[in-house]
Amino acid sequence: MSPQRDCLNDDSEVVRKAKEEGVVDVVFPGYVSKEACCQFVGEILKCVLYQRQQLPMTFDQLKYHQKQQQTSTREGDIVGRRPPKAVVGGLDWRKCQRTLQDMDEVLAHLELLFSLTLVPRVLLVLGGSLVLPKELYEINMEEVALGTGDGCLRASVCLRKLFRTLFVADILTDARPVQLLSMTVLALGHRDCGVSGFRPKMDFKVPTRIKRQVIYLASEPHLTDASQSTSTDWGDYVWFQAPVAIKGFCK
User: Fold this and answer.
1) Residue 113, class by beta-carbon neighbours within 10 Å (0-12 exposed, 13-18 middle, 19+ buried)?
2) H-assigned helices in the chain
3) Burial status of residue 12 (CB atoms within 10 A of its CB: 0-12, 13-18, 19 or more)
């Protein structure tokens, strides 16, 4: 069988599993650093917000418009007047700024958490409540083989594979209009990791009354550190909630 035929078969299985089971598997051919895992979570978070119509454009595009607005404000100050309330690129600047600040804060707290503890699972909760959300996405990294230094795959290589698989699986697109919602981020970490900002949710249980879309990130089986899964006492791990919710906005 040709490599092209193999690829088509693999893609068909990705689509089937995503549609029938709500699961997307992404397997990396090497070791991955904790920093890269944090980056995966951040990029998936941004993608979910955009694809689920909670942002009018991508995070990077919003950041570009933010820089434009800041430049305009500085120029207005130089000539002794502040420019009128700006609608940059058709955006409500105040709502855009608030959302970007919330996203930056959540991403910074995630980076700190990943530096302090193993983070095997992350939940992206959209709308509703933590008990009964409108939509629920899980990023599961329990089977990622962690490494450090030059022995790890480059994050950019992994991100290309990750988003190609998500594109094929097509789990984030929906023809129906989606109302503006708030996103709450929860991450599983060691109860004694000493993180600040994140609030421990000792009694939190993953909701089961709503279909959960799960993105499983893993390394090839022969690379997975067996001791990672067998010696880690998951009973010492609790869910931590991000300090702010990210509110969606439109133009």
Assistant:
1) buried
2) 3-21, 34-51, 59-78, 93-116, 155-169, 226-231
3) exposed
Q: Report which secondary-structure segment, H or E, holds 200.
A: strand 199-201
Q: Mutual orientation of helices 59-78 and 34-51 as an angle, nearest 10°?
A: 80
Q: Find the helix or strand (DSSP H, E) in which 193 lies.
A: none
Structure tokens at 168: 């094929």
Q: Which of 43-57, 84-98, 106-120, 203-217 has the lowest mean pLDDT?
A: 84-98
Q: How many CB atoms lie within 10 A of CB 130?
A: 17
- DSSP string computed for 146-180: B--GGGBPPHHHHHHHHHHHHHHHT-S--SS----
| Closest listed residue to residue 137, CA positions, set 249, 41, 215 | 215
**pTM, rounded to two decimals:** 0.88
Per-residue pLDDT tens for 26-75? 999 999 999 999 999 999 999 999 999 999 999 999 988 888 777 776 66
The CA distances from residue 234 to 109, 147, 149, 227, in Å, are 22, 20, 26, 13
Rounded CA-CA distance 197/189 in Å is: 13
**Band of residue 225 on the pLDDT scale cut at 50, 70, 90:** low
